[in-house]
Every structure is written in C-alpha cells, then in structure tokens.
Amino acid sequence: MPSGRRILVVDADTAGAESLLTQLRRHGHEAFGVRRGEAALRAHEDADLVLLDLELPDLDGLEVCRAVRAVSRVPVIIVTARASELDCVLGLQAGADDYVAKPYGLRELMARIEAVMRRAAWQPAPAREIRRGRLHIDAGSREVMVDGEEVALTRKEFDLLCLLASHPDTVIPRKQLLQQVWGDSWSRRTVDTHVSSLRGKLGDSAWIVTVRGVGFMLGNP
Which residues of the chain have pLDDT under 50? Predict the structure, then answer.
C-alpha cells in the first residue's frame, strides 16, 4: 500500500490512541487523532481512512459511522472492544468497511487497512453532478433543481434521491435503501414516507417509480 495515507484515529483512550498513531506514523502514514464524535464528523473530510472506536464520550460510535457514511465514501474501520457478533453486524450495517475487535495484532490491523484501501481504490468516484432530463443534482453542494428551480430537500430526502439517481434505470431494493440512507435502523414505512415527500417536492410522482415487491427507481417524466 502506498505510504502517506492520511489516517484519522477516533478514540477516547488517549494512551491507546497515541500508541496507534505512533505505529501508523512508523509505517509512513500521516496519522492524526480526535477523542470525540463531534470532532470526528468535522475531521473525516481531511482523511483517506478512519479508524473509529465505538466508545466515545459524546456520541455513540455507530451514530458517528452512519453520519460519516451519509455524506462521504471515506473508508471506515471500526476498532473497538465491543467484540460480539451483534456489535460487528451493527457496525457493518452502519456503513463500516471492516470491524476489528480489541485487543488486536498490529500486523492484522495493517493488513485490514491495506485490504480496505485496495477495495476503495477500485470503486469509481461518485458523479459530482447528475442530470436526468429536467432534474439536476449537485452532489457537492447538495442542491437539487427541476426545470432550473431549486428544490429544498431534507438531508435524508437528498440522500435517497441521490442514491436512486446514481443508479439510473436500476431498481434499488427497499432494504438497500434503508441500509444505505438510514443505517437499517428504521422501518420500511420510513422509505414510503420519504418517497411520498420527494414526489411532492419534485412536482411529479413519476420522478420515483415504485416496483411492487422490490423497491424504487428513478423515473424521467
């Protein structure tokens, strides 16, 4: 793996975090750390990879992971003392790319970092702008326009629309929408409510097509 990655360590354990930061720097990485979830939500934008503990003093690490994943594709590896299978499943559902239980071997962690970064390198970057007929989505500024008129959306409405628009002519299963937009922590009714709201704001119900028993896809009225 190329050296010089910017790795953000989010861990309230000062001693443990400093030790990890030192090891990462010895491996040629530009490592920096924060102790709180709120700080992580600001700092992840400057990172190539995030190592995230779940035990934080202000926010639960799962919520931090969901919040990061809602706005960014930066790879996230959860590194935590929560070692149960359920914790691992919840972490992956929250959007983490991998899950490492403490205590861990440094070689294992470095190998997992390499694997995650290798997978990330093969993923195409999302389109900054998406156009679909009269619909224009700017992923950078999170602005949506129809016929040149701006449409005011909530964050989740935008995330839902952007996900559908990023896969044109593809039906996105309801379960996938829940996992990627809400972290799989809400009911199927949540999707229906947001789809209904989006249709109203976009001015035409045909913008979002329901495929009964499967999910939804973006239309082009």
Answer: 1-2
